[in-house]
Specification:
The complex is a heterodimer of chains A (115) and B (115).
Chain A lengths: L3 E2 L4 E5 L4 E3 L2 E2 L6 E8 L6 E7 L6 E3 L2 E6 L4 E6 L8 E9 L7 E2 L3 E6 L1
Parallel strand pairs in A: 2-12
Antiparallel strand pairs in A: 1-4, 3-9, 5-6, 5-10, 7-8, 8-9, 10-11, 10-12
Chain B lengths: L4 E3 L2 E4 L5 E6 L6 E8 L3 E9 L2 E4 L8 E7 L2 E6 L8 E8 L9 E2 L3 E5 L1
Parallel strand pairs in B: 2-11
Antiparallel strand pairs in B: 1-3, 3-8, 4-5, 4-9, 5-6, 7-8, 9-10, 9-11
């Protein structure tokens, strides 16, 4: 079973629009960690944020914000006032205590911001 | 720090040839991961090491694949013999394994094409 589901395969928005990327995860652990990574067209994977299962506070970093809700097993990512440079594939990932060190990645959401 | 360094960035080889991918993790990081990324299967964990010891290699596709980490600053992923279906981008990542609460940092990847 897929531990991390990113149902949105591709999203296109016009520049300056807000966009939310969905991430739903599945785990039986009480202690786990969630991550978001960005993969721009150049191909590298860039770490964006880490969140642990005991911290449900939403986080804002500039135009980026993250909404973690344990009740719905979701860790959604919102980009406000999108820019062309935000065009990339975004991956959500899960790391659990019970399965050791590995990261389970979702299939990614490809975001295109149209100027 | 220079980040995770992978070489080569691109590799084109003929079917049946041996291919060796190289990775230098971030200094001080004691966990290292090899991932493969394809359009069909997304990001797949192949193997990871902790303190130079392979912990989980269940993601290694078959005996044609092997990985080594002779010391804390170097790892290789070898494919012998290579096949066209091995064509993918191979990422190396490293992290500090003190607790689960750390993110992995990725190299820029090696794009392998087997013709």
């Amino acid at each position: 079973a897929q531990k991390v589901t990113q149902a949105q395969t591709e999203i296109s928005v016009v520049e300056k629009e807000d966009v939310t990327l969905d991430c739903v995860y599945e785990t039986r652990d009480t202690t786990y960690y969630l991550f978001w990574y960005k993969q721009p067209p150049s191909g590298e994977l860039v770490f964006l944020i880490r969140r642990n299962s005991f911290d449900e506070q939403n986080e804002i970093s500039g135009r980026y914000s993250w909404n973690f809700q344990k009740s719905t097993s979701s860790f959604n990512f919102t980009i406000t006032a999108s820019q062309v440079v935000d065009s990339a594939v975004y991956f959500c990932a899960l790391s659990e205590i019970s399965t050791g060190n590995q990261f389970y990645f979702g299939t990614g959401t490809s975001l295109t911001v149209i100027p | 720090d220079a980040g995770v360094i992978q070489s080569p960035r691109h590799e084109v080889t003929e079917m049946g040839q041996e291919v060796t991918l190289r990775c230098k993790p971030i200094s001080g990081h004691n966990s290292l991961f090899w991932y493969r990324q394809t359009m069909m299967r997304g990001l797949e964990l192949l193997i990871y090491f902790n303190n130079n010891v392979p912990i989980d290699d269940s993601g290694m596709p078959e005996d044609r694949f092997s990985a080594k980490m002779p010391n804390a600053s170097f790892s290789t992923l070898k494919i012998q013999p290579s096949e066209p279906r091995d064509s993918a981008v191979y990422f190396c990542a490293s992290k500090i394994e003190l607790t689960l609460n750390t993110e992995a940092f990725f190299g820029q990847g090696t794009r392998l094409t087997v013709v």
